[in-house]
Automatic annotation (TrEMBL):
Coiled coil: none annotated. Its EC number is 5.3.1.9. The lineage of its organism: Eukaryota, Fungi, Dikarya, Basidiomycota, Wallemiomycotina. Belongs to the GPI family. Keywords: Gluconeogenesis, Glycolysis, Isomerase. It comes from Wallemia ichthyophaga. One of its GO terms (biological process) is gluconeogenesis. This is Glucose-6-phosphate isomerase.
Length: 547
């Protein structure tokens, strides 16, 4: 059912209209000294040390609004849909598939999940364990008997972003005597620069592609194999230097990779939800299998939290409904993710795909065109860098940008006062965004200059900008797993309320197909009559300038 068909949607619209001019964070806090205690909640892992504390008190919501948002969750049957996802029903309706990334990390076995392949998950994990151990303990040797010192993951989208983000976020745990490289872009520069840093005798290529048909990945993998064979000569050596992570056995073996060097996963693992699968092999090699298992465990702990916690204290639900409040009622177009942890500098990039490919849809599951906003634009970067780049606009621009601030209590690198200085910023920004600075205060500070009205006005901060603050003890593998799963389920809840299929990605197809038809034209083959005059003109410009 479209989101607007729910009674609580209308209620929320009314609440928005009647509160939008009067609801201020300043008043909300002034009225209720217990606001922080009431509007914050902590998750602690059952099986791991994962922990996430969420303070959502700096949001433009009162009790009525929160209750209406919770009613929306109930009316949209989010809990039923969640249970259907967990139990393996084919909720990815357009592709007729189950959505079972939770089965990849069901480390306790508490979730009862039925689908072809689920029973094989432990077997693949065991394979990953043995293989990653063999690379790490150097028992796996290259064709000249040398241990592996370079690992190149070749993949794109979901077969790249997860491994890149996690190996960065958990760099503290990464084995430093192996260099990890990630090649995704079809631009030859990407692979060329990586190969310059590698030696064919000690390089392992991990070809990561769910479909094993993705143009970028297959082209980069072919270039790498050619480069490798220039030195190794004999094709039989490929087996020691190329492995594949895929659902497509036929294409993998046709490429020349031995089936026993293939790590399987299944069509019920969406690309952007696949770092928990064989796609995580580079992560397992980098941080060690035990840590990879902790990553899975932390995510599993959030899966259990999402399943078993009443919606009022359910972290992914809370984050989802607050997002909907701004996205659909306040008209916010974007949402910023701002981790105050340098290791997490790729977290927002990762969820650009995670969120935008999942919820960037305008057709409901029933085939109707939505008459409301769906997925927000996700962006952000690590603090404090963002402060010196784009925070100006968040503070004083004309757009409302809800933000998530994320920080760990403990750092992996306690040097001098760095961490407390970092955290003072992570705390100061949401405070400034929420409460701003009024004209009176500015005038007081300006003293004699207060007569300059323009100057006064330009120094006023309106405040009332909503934020969440997410605090973890430390970015351990389990806590990172929990954070990722938290955002995954937030996306799920929002998609469920918007009544869209968060698990297909039809929108990436058209450009891919067109590129295939344009490629021969760039070789001067065929005519350009089927293209617009603009694109035809550009093709001809290229042809007349190409050397
Ligand atoms: O893993 P493969 O199949 O190469 O796909 C890589 C990526 O392709 C894109 O077009 C999207 O569909 C992504 O969801 C996917 O992660």
């Amino acid at each position: 059912m479209p989101a607007t068909a729910h009674a609580s949607w209308n209620k929320l619209q009314q609440l928005y209209e009647s509160n939008k001019d009067s609801l201020t964070l300043e008043q909300l806090f002034a009225k209720d000294p217990q606001r922080f205690e009431k509007l914050s909640t902590e998750f602690k892992g059952k099986y791991t040390d994962a922990n996430v504390f969420l303070d959502y008190s700096k949001n433009l919501v009162n009790e009525d609004i929160l209750n209406a948002l919770f009613s929306l969750v109930k009316e949209a049957n989010v809990e039923k849909l969640r249970d259907e996802m967990y139990s393996g029903e084919h909720i990815n309706t357009s592709e007729g598939r189950a959505v079972l990334h939770t089965a990849l990390r069901n480390v306790s076995g508490e979730l009862n999940q039925q689908e072809e392949g689920v029973a094989d998950v432990p077997k693949v994990l065991q394979h990953m364990k043995e293989f990653s151990n063999a690379i790490r303990d150097e028992s796996w040797k290259g064709y000249t008997g040398k241990p592996i010192k370079n690992v190149v993951n070749i993949g794109i989208g979901g077969s790249d972003l997860g491994p890149v983000m996690v190996t960065e976020a958990l760099k503290h745990y990464v084995k430093r005597d192996i260099a990890f490289h990630f090649v995704s872009n079809i631009d030859g520069t990407h692979i060329a620069e990586v190969l310059k840093a590698c030696d064919p005798e000690n390089t392992l290529f991990i070809v990561a592609s769910k479909t094993f048909t993705t143009q970028e990945t297959i082209t980069n993998a072919t270039t790498s194999r050619d480069w490798f064979l220039e030195s190794a000569k004999d094709k039989k050596h490929v087996a020691k230097h190329f492995v594949a992570l895929s659902t497509n056995t036929k294409a993998v073996t046709e490429f020349g990779i031995d089936e026993k060097n293939m790590f399987q996963f299944w069509d019920w693992v969406g690309g952007r939800y696949s770092l928990w699968s064989a796609i995580g092999l580079s992560i397992a090699i980098a941080i060690g299998y035990e840590n990879f298992h902790q990553l899975l465990g932390g995510a599993h702990d959030i899966d259990l939290h999402f399943k078993n916690t009443p919606i009022e204290q359910n972290l992914p639900v809370l984050m989802a409904v607050l997002g909907i409040w701004y996205n659909d009622f306040y008209g916010a177009q974007t949402h910023a993710i701002l981790p105050y942890d340098q290791y997490m500098h790729k977290f927002a990039d990762y969820f650009q795909q995670g969120d935008m490919e999942s919820n960037g849809k305008y057709i409901t599951k029933g085939g109707q065109h939505v008459d409301y906003q769906t997925g927000p634009i996700i962006w952000g970067q690590a603090g404090t860098n963002g402060q010196h780049a784009f925070y100006q606009l968040i503070h004083q621009g004309t757009k409302l940008i809800p933000c998530d601030f994320i920080f760990p209590v403990e750092t992996h690198n306690p040097i001098g006062d760095h961490h407390r200085i970092l955290l003072s910023n992570a705390l100061a920004q949401p405070e400034a965004l929420a409460f701003g600075k009024d004209e009176e205060q500015v005038k007081k500070e300006l003293g004699a200059q207060a007569s300059n009205e323009t100057l006064v006005k330009s120094k006023v901060f309106p405040g009332n900008k909503p934020t969440n603050t997410i605090v973890c003890q430390k970015i351990t593998p389990a806590t990172l797993g929990a954070l990722i799963a938290l955002y995954e389920h937030k996306i799920f809840v929002q998609g469920a309320i918007w009544d869209i299929n968060s698990f297909d990605q039809m929108g990436v197809e058209l450009g891919k197909v067109l590129a295939k038809s344009i490629l021969p034209k760039l070789h001067g083959e065929g005519d350009t009559k089927d293209l617009s005059s603009s694109t035809a003109g550009l093709v001809n410009y290229f042809l007349s300038h190409a050397k």
